């Protein structure tokens, strides 16, 4: 924790001098970004009014004094600072190992993985005198570079091509090799359909363990064999089963708080013995392209739904494609023949459970609102500020659905283009 | 020469007719057995024909008089002709009567001919177009051959060639009128129709003010009993007879909401398809309007072949059967008293119970009914959530009340909850001793039954009856005409007999008894939409109008109201099976409302409310009668007195 | 139809389900989807045979639920279900494994998790381990079966699919991504036969020991702001609770509106990356 402030008077002077050719750069360096406030040489707060505010729609600079906008600007720096403040923990000689097999969806630790690692840390750190180490077993290529922040002490990476895709047999063989060589005390996997749910069950049966599945709570219990007791969801989410924590546990997301105060070594590890090649009876032929519009409404997590206010249906379909949303429709749109009947949302159509429901030009008949009851976030675009959909919406925009959708499409495309340039 | 030729012609025709009749009867007897009192039925025939049937026919005076003249003339002429020309009993007045009868028939046939010159679309053509000529041939021929008999003309008048020509005309007439009657000509309707009236499956529907609208229960106890109708021969014999009685007048077609909406249903064609199935063959000979969007001639069937093909085409396509809203407009209009809705539900029963082919959202609804006792799949324990603040008295607490308020599944629907709240307010204002079943109530089973799921219906009904049997009450009041119909007309067969009233009836009674007082109506013009299950199913056209009148509303009746009211499209599970058409039924109904110029349409059914409110850009507001009444409530003088007497206490407290 | 495609022998494992709201016995959703998959296979590959298998106690409630599966078989010629009759609380896995090993089919289809009991989703894995067969989970469709190799589609999140080739015999498990089950008809369900054979029961003593209670609602995770700045912490603590009426943007340009929506979509993480 090296906290000595070092000052460069020349830089500070350049930063104060607006006419200096290097002024902008100096200003940016000084604040680690576009800071508008800094401590001046006399210990007085200095403000740079040019660095605050944002360009308004009419090309006029607006300053939001509520602090919201400013807060957003500094958060990057603050975040960095918070990370820097993490305590670095290194466990040299662990008393035992807690093995975690993260699902790494999209090559990164998912929030489910981070929760699981938080749980692993609880198990590992229960006894401060004899801490265990968290071992992450990682398969295939990954893009993650913050294993340490997530609470991982050791990383065992099986990057071989044989482990990519759906390769449960090869992965199981690797896990069994880990078991033979390192014999972790706990095996933790996320109970997510294509993450650990499959692999974890295979592993447990190979180990002859009866795993706890759907674990969402773990508590210390001196009487249990491993010193822990867990609560697991059973019978299609309708039962809570209390049982001693077995060696293999498959946990749900939010089973524990993710690690956020310490940073761990994430030391690479490798096995002494080679993993025996398993003869695979399952061959992965790769992913098949699927049209998001074809996804069943009831399962979709992001729905773009169109109603009477949508005039240009081609643009609507295009927007759904660009946003990667599943298409839905109000009854009227279906009756008018713009959408197929199986796309109808509402009490008389499909009851949807989307995380985000974007209603374009739907005024919100009662039946429709009933059908979207269990949606998390509803965004409404409508011309009529008094309609029921606006009342229901978490974010409502008054305006023409077609125009706003096309602006949104442009925004998303631009963003995506920008990302590609940056990468 | 005619004297020798005529008896031969007449008795040959009669003989052929008898053979035809025997063959026709054999066709009907392919159907399942059905016990009807044969002689009692035959004895009731004249009354059923002259009163009940003509009550329906008489809605169109011209046609009615035409039919009286033609049919009456024919029956008289035929009988007299057998006597006069067949048995040669030409003495005295008989010949003159025959002349008069045939003349009368001739006049009638002129009107028939006039109608056939520019027939409306609903009428079938084909063989029916030659009927007026045949009628004229018969009546004119009989008239002419009778002239010599009564002595107006010399018996040897004219040439033998003329006599032969006359005989040919009479033979044509006889062939159409007598032989055709049993061999499948247009006159078949007289023969089959008469027997159909005599052996009708719902004898109880005849007679002044009587109606029989409840579906008949399937025997589910007996595992060998068939579940619905798979093939034409699975209908009962008197149902088949009923189909054969159809005159193809197309009145059903003209009132059918599904047909008007361009959905693939035409009740007339459906009945004709059943006749095709009964005799075997293709529907190519059918000469009326087809099912919208389905060309004629592609379907064929046989008495023992399936009606709805599995995968391929058979007699009828499934979407035809699922288009029906069970509004009974066709049955109400049918002059031959054919029961279209029974037939459709019988065929639906097979599709649902045996094939598991209920379309679209219906399987989900049925699964919900099985698992949660309501079609929406809501937790049964949330049935009373809407009334959390109303503190409704529960049957299980009171055990005995005057009125059991049946909520229906509208209790889960946010729109209908407003109606229910209004109704509770009205009942409280009238100080009615009422209670609700609360969580003990289940769906009445209406939707399940109309969708053909008799098993689920009976399961729900039996459990509801068991619940109702636990308590004592005078009557059931409900704001849902579907529940009203099922509880009142269909639970009886399963052992639950109740006095059920629609809320409009009950409110009318309360008002008549002076227990409700209303402030005068200040709104705009109002029209009233008759719900099918209240009107046609239960004959209640008056009470809602009386209530509206009591509110001070002058009704702007729609063109189609009362027994001719057009369905909202919400019955029979039609919104669930959702067969596509060219238009939507509720849109057409709201157009009717618009035409009447009313700014508000009063309804008395949650289904109608939902369907009519679902119309986009409607010109009229949709309100339930209970809501209108609740809004107009004023404190009755008696209640005022009661509250006055309480006032001093209040003052003391304050 | 290609000549090398031949019929397969399929066994569908079915269980007694539980309606999520009322808890009434019903056909389990996933198992019914499994049967639907098998029926679709039978329709495409002539000569296929389907067997239905259930292990558990024979009671009135469970019988009506099992008949729910048989109601799906209208017009398919499948009219019986093999019931391995066991005592309440017995472990179904050994009985099923033994039965399958005695007359091994080519394909075993099962739901991913039971709706009653422990519902751990272990059964397909245990059977695969017992029988030594490959197992594929999350099955969405069977594309073809050729020369003892099945080409399958496995469901990935967001409606995506992965194509797999599996050597038969194999066990596949289905979840909500498989085709929805057809309607169960009353008639065939009533007529069908349950061929019950009593089997030795191994009681699941471990499960019986664990206390089970109706599921508690899981607490929603609070957004804990561990920020360095007191101002941020204060703002987080004083922020209005979520809910109530949402934000309404009126009189803004399309771009600003799009910006606001875009921000929300990105926060929710629903935009494809």
From TrEMBL, chain A:
SMART domains in the cross-refs: ETF (SM00893)
GO terms for biological process, alphabetical: fatty acid beta-oxidation using acyl-CoA dehydrogenase
SUPFAM superfamilies noted in UniProt: Adenine nucleotide alpha hydrolases-like, DHS-like NAD/FAD-binding domain
Span of domain Electron transfer flavoprotein alpha/beta-subunit N-terminal: 98-284
A Gene Ontology molecular function term of the record: flavin adenine dinucleotide binding
Keywords from the named record: Electron transport, Transport
Family according to the record: Belongs to the ETF alpha-subunit/FixB family.
Official protein name in the record: Electron transfer flavoprotein subunit alpha
Organism per entry: Halomonas lysinitropha
Automatic annotation (TrEMBL), chain B:
Keyword Iron: yes
Keyword match Transmembrane: yes
Annotated TM spans: 6-22, 68-87, 93-113, 134-153, 159-179
GO molecular function, one term: oxidoreductase activity
GO CC term (a single one): plasma membrane
Pfam families registered for this protein in UniProt: CCG, DUF3483, Fer4_9
Keywords recorded for this protein, A-Z: 4Fe-4S, Iron, Iron-sulfur, Membrane, Metal-binding, Oxidoreductase, Transmembrane, Transmembrane helix
Start and end residues of each 4Fe-4S ferredoxin-type domain: 237-267, 312-343
Protein name, UniProt field: Succinate dehydrogenase/fumarate reductase iron-sulfur subunit
TrEMBL record, chain C:
GO molecular function per UniProt: electron transfer activity
Keywords carried by this UniProt record: Electron transport, Transport
Record carries keyword Zinc: no
Entries under InterPro entries matching the protein: ETF_a/b_N (IPR014730), ETF_b (IPR012255), Rossmann-like_a/b/a_fold (IPR014729)
Domain of life from the UniProt record: Bacteria
A Pfam short name: ETF
Domain Electron transfer flavoprotein alpha/beta-subunit N-terminal: from-to ranges: 32-200
Family from the record: Belongs to the ETF beta-subunit/FixA family.
Protein name, entry field: Electron transfer flavoprotein domain protein
């Amino acid at each position: 924790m090296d906290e000595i402030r070092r000052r460069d008077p020349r830089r500070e002077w350049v930063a104060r001098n607006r006419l200096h050719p290097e002024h902008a750069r100096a200003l940016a360096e000084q604040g680690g970004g576009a800071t508008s406030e800094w401590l001046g040489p006399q210990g007085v707060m200095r403000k740079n009014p040019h660095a605050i505010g944002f360009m308004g729609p009419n090309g006029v600079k607006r300053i939001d004094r509520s602090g919201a906008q400013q807060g957003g600007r500094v958060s990057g720096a603050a975040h960095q600072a918070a990370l820097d403040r993490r305590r670095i923990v290194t466990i040299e000689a662990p008393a035992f190992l807690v093995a975690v097999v993260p699902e790494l969806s999209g090559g990164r630790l998912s929030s489910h993985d981070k929760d699981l690692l938080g749980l692993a840390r609880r198990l590992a750190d229960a006894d401060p005198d004899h801490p265990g180490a968290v071992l992450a077993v990682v398969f295939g290529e990954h893009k993650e570079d913050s294993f340490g922040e997530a609470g991982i002490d050791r990383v065992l990476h099986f990057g071989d091509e044989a482990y990519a895709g759906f390769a449960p047999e090869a992965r199981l063989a690797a896990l069994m090799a880990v078991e033979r060589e390192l014999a972790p005390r706990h095996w933790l996997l996320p109970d997510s359909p294509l993450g650990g749910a499959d692999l974890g069950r295979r592993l447990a049966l190979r180990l002859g363990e009866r795993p706890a599945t759907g674990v969402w709570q773990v508590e210390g219990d001196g009487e249990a064999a491993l010193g822990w007791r867990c609560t697991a969801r059973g019978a299609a989410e309708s039962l809570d089963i209390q049982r001693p924590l077995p060696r293999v546990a498959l946990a749900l997301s939010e089973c524990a708080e993710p690690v956020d105060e310490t940073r761990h070594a994430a030391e690479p590890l490798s096995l002494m013995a080679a993993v025996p090649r398993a003869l695979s009876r399952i061959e992965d032929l790769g992913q098949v392209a699927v049209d998001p519009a074809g996804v069943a409404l009831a399962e979709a997590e992001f729905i773009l739904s169109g109603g009477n206010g949508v005039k240009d249906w081609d643009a609507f379909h295009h927007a759904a494609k660009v946003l990667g949303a599943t298409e839905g429709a109000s009854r009227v749109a279906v009756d008018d023949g713009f959408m197929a009947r199986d796309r109808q949302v509402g009490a008389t159509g499909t009851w949807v459970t989307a995380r985000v429901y974007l209603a374009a030009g739907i005024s919100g008949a009662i039946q429709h609102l009933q059908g979207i009851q269990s949606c998390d976030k509803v965004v409404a675009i409508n011309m009529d500020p008094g309609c029921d959909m606006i009342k229901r919406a978490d974010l409502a925009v008054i305006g023409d659905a077609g125009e706003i959708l096309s602006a949104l499409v442009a925004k998303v495309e631009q963003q995506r283009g920008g990302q590609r340039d940056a990468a | 020469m005619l004297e020798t030729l005529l008896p031969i012609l007449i008795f040959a025709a009669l003989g052929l007719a008898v053979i035809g009749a025997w063959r026709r009867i054999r066709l009907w007897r392919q159907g399942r057995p059905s016990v009807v009192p044969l002689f009692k039925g035959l004895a009731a025939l004249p009354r059923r024909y002259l009163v009940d049937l003509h009550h329906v026919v008489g809605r169109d005076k011209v046609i009615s008089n035409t039919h009286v003249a033609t049919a009456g003339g024919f029956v008289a002429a035929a009988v007299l002709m057998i006597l006069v020309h067949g048995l040669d009993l030409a003495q005295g007045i008989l010949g003159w009567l025959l002349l008069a009868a045939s003349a009368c028939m001739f006049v009638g046939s002129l009107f028939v001919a006039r109608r056939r010159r520019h027939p409306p679309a609903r009428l079938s053509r084909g063989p029916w177009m030659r009927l007026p000529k045949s009628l004229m041939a018969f009546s004119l021929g009989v008239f002419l051959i009778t002239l010599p008999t009564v002595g107006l003309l010399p018996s040897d008048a004219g040439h033998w060639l003329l006599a032969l020509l006359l005989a040919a005309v009479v033979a044509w007439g006889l062939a159409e009128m007598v032989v055709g009657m049993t061999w499948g000509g247009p006159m078949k309707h007289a023969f089959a129709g008469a027997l159909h009236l005599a052996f009708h499956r719902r004898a109880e529907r005849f007679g002044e003010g009587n109606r029989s609208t409840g579906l008949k229960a399937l025997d589910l106890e007996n595992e060998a009993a068939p579940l619905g109708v798979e093939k034409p021969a699975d209908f009962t014999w008197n149902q088949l007879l009923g189909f054969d009685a159809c005159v193809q007048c197309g009145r059903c077609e003209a009132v059918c909401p599904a047909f008007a909406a361009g959905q693939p249903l035409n009740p007339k064609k459906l009945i004709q398809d059943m006749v095709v199935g009964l005799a075997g063959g293709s529907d190519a000979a059918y000469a009326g309007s087809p099912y919208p969007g389905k060309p004629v001639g592609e379907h064929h069937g046989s008495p023992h072949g399936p009606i709805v093909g599995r995968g391929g085409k058979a007699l009828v396509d499934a979407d035809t059967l699922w288009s029906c809203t069970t509004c009974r407009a066709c049955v109400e209009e049918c002059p031959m008293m054919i029961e279209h809705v029974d037939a459709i539900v019988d065929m639906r029963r097979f599709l649902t119970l045996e094939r598991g082919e209920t379309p679209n959202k219906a399987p989900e609804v049925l699964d919900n009914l099985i698992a949660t006792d309501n079609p929406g799949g809501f937790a049964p324990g949330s049935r009373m959530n809407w009334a959390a603040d109303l503190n409704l008295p529960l049957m299980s607490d009171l055990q005995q009340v005057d009125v059991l308020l049946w909520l229906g599944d509208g209790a889960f629907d946010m729109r209908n909850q407003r109606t229910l709240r209004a109704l509770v307010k009205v009942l409280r204002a009238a100080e009615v001793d009422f209670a609700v079943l609360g969580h003990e109530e289940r769906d009445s089973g209406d939707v399940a039954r109309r969708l053909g799921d008799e098993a689920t219906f009976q399961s729900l009904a039996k459990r509801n009856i068991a619940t109702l049997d636990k308590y004592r009450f005078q009557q059931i009041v409900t704001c849902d005409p579907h529940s009203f119909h099922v509880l009142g007309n269909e639970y009886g067969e399963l052992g639950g007999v109740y006095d059920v009233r629609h809320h409009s009836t009950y409110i009318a009674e309360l008002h008549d008894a002076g227990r409700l007082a209303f402030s005068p109506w200040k709104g705009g013009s109002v029209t009233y939409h008759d719900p099918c299950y209240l009107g046609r199913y239960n004959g209640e056209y008056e009470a809602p109008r009386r209530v509206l009148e009591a509110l001070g509303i002058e009704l702007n009746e729609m063109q189609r109201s009362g027994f001719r009211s057009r369905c909202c499209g919400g019955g029979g599970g039609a919104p669930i099976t959702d067969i596509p058409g060219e238009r939507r039924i509720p849109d057409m109904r709201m157009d009717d409302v618009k035409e009447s110029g009313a700014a508000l349409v009063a309804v008395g059914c949650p289904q109608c409310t939902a369907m009519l409110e679902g119309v986009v850009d409607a010109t009229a507001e949709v309100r339930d009668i209970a809501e209108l009444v609740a809004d107009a409530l004023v404190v009755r003088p008696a209640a005022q007195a009661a509250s006055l007497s309480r006032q001093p206490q209040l003052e003391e407290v304050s | 139809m290609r000549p090398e495609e031949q019929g397969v022998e399929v066994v569908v494992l079915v269980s007694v389900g539980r309606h999520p709201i009322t808890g009434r016995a019903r056909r389990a959703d996933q198992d019914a989807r499994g049967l639907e998959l098998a029926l679709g296979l039978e329709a495409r590959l002539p000569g296929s045979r389907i067997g239905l298998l259930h292990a558990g106690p024979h009671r009135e409630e469970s019988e009506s639920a099992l008949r729910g599966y048989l109601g799906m078989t209208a017009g398919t010629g499948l009219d019986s279900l093999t019931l391995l009759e066991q005592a309440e609380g017995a472990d179904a896995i050994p009985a099923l494994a033994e039965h399958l090993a005695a007359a091994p089919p080519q394909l075993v289809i099962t739901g991913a998790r039971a709706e009653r009991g422990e519902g751990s989703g272990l059964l397909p894995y245990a059977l695969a381990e017992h029988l030594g067969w490959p197992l594929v989970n999350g099955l969405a469709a069977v594309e073809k079966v050729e020369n003892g190799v099945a080409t399958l589609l496995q469901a990935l999140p967001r409606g995506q699919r992965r194509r797999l080739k599996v050597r038969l015999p194999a066990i596949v498990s289905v979840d909500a991504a498989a085709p929805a089950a057809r309607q169960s008809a009353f008639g065939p369900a009533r007529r069908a036969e349950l061929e019950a054979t009593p089997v030795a029961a191994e009681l699941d003593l471990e499960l019986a020991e664990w206390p089970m209670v109706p599921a508690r609602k899981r607490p929603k995770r609070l957004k804990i702001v561990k920020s360095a700045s007191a101002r941020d912490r204060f703002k987080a603590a004083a922020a209005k609770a979520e809910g109530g009426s949402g934000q309404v943007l009126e009189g803004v340009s399309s771009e600003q509106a799009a910006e606001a929506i875009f921000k929300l979509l990105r926060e929710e993480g629903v935009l494809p990356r």
